[in-house]
């Protein structure tokens, strides 16, 4: 390895992990105080890679370098790139001026840079490293953009397929509901049930409206009895609003099942009485409703 200043030698020992604890603290304190110190450390790290690639490190330094800078694939890639840069540099330096003039009438800025007597080996290597690294990053950036575009296209395709599946599921659900409604129209249930609330409301706006599908054999009426008392059974009587009794019966619960043929369009009331164990009858409520056109 080429001769270094005392400060550079200390920073190289720090990079290779051979610095003492006091030396490590000294360097790290310098980082906090001087921003350029970290840039110098990075430059020395790159120079170590060049030295390693051309075999300029001592045997002990090579072992230390490999232990710290060849751990990952990315580390090994950087060292390989440094070797490529050195190979390119040797190729450029080996070319004669005549060969350069034959190949290129006017030297490019890059060739002129190497031809300058003030341009050192380290600067040339750094310049080649920047060019090579720039190409690598440009290629990597292009691959990244392509991957992002592919993922965005894939996400759009998944979203479109999801919307299509959702629309198809909604269509199937609507079709199933339509088939269910049509099935009810064609094959209505034998018994159709309603819940009635008590009250003396007899006007058209207050009555509960019952729509009984065609084909229903019986209509089940469930009565919401507020004061049930100690009733053991009930007697229900169906009347029209003229007071004509159309149906009556004794039931164990406050509910009845009436033949649908009796309930033609019109207004009705069910007079419900609760029966005690001794057979005494008490009013359990009057339930008005209106049957509309089926």
3D structure, described in words:
- The protein is α/β, with parallel strands linked by helices.
- The chain has two domains: 6-140, no CATH class; 191-291, Immunoglobulins (Immunoglobulin-like, Sandwich), CATH 2.60.40.
- Helices cover 53% and strands 19% of the residues.
- It has eight helices and eight strands, in the order H-H-H-H-H-H-H-H-E-E-E-E-E-E-E-E.
- It has a five-stranded mixed β-sheet with strand order 2-8-7-4-5, with no helix packed on it. The chain has a three-stranded mixed β-sheet with strand order 1-3-6, with no helix packed on it.
- The longest helix has 66 residues, at 121-186.
- The N and C termini lie far apart (105 Å).
- The mean pLDDT is 77.
């Amino acid at each position: 390895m080429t001769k270094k200043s005392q400060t550079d030698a200390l920073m190289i020992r720090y990079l290779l992990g051979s610095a003492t604890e006091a030396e490590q603290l000294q360097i790290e304190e310098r980082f906090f105080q001087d921003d350029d110190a970290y840039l110098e450390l990075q430059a020395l790290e790159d120079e170590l890679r060049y030295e390693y690639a051309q075999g300029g490190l001592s045997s002990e330094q090579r072992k230390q370098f490999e232990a710290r800078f060849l751990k990952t694939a990315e580390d090994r890639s950087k060292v390989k790139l440094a070797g490529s840069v050195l190979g390119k540099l040797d190729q450029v330096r080996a070319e004669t001026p005549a060969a350069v003039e034959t190949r290129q009438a006017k030297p490019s800025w890059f060739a002129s840079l190497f031809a300058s007597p003030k341009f050192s080996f380290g600067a040339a290597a750094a310049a080649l490293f920047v060019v090579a690294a720039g190409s690598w990053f440009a290629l990597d950036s292009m691959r990244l953009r392509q991957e992002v575009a592919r993922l965005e296209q894939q996400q759009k395709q998944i979203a479109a397929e999801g919307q299509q599946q959702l629309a198809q599921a909604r269509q199937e659900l609507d079709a199933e509901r339509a088939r269910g409604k049509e099935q009810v129209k064609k094959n209505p249930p034998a018994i159709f049930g309603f819940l009635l609330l008590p009250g003396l409301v007899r006007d058209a706006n207050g009555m509960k409206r019952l729509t009984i599908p065609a084909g229903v054999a019986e209509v089940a009426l469930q009565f919401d009895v507020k004061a049930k008392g100690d009733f053991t059974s009930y007697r229900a009587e169906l009347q029209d609003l003229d007071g004509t009794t159309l149906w009556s019966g004794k039931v164990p619960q406050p509910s009845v099942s009436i033949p649908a043929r009796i309930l033609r369009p019109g207004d009705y009331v069910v007079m419900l009485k609760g029966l005690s164990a001794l057979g005494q009858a008490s009013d359990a409520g009057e339930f008005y409703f209106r049957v509309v056109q089926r």
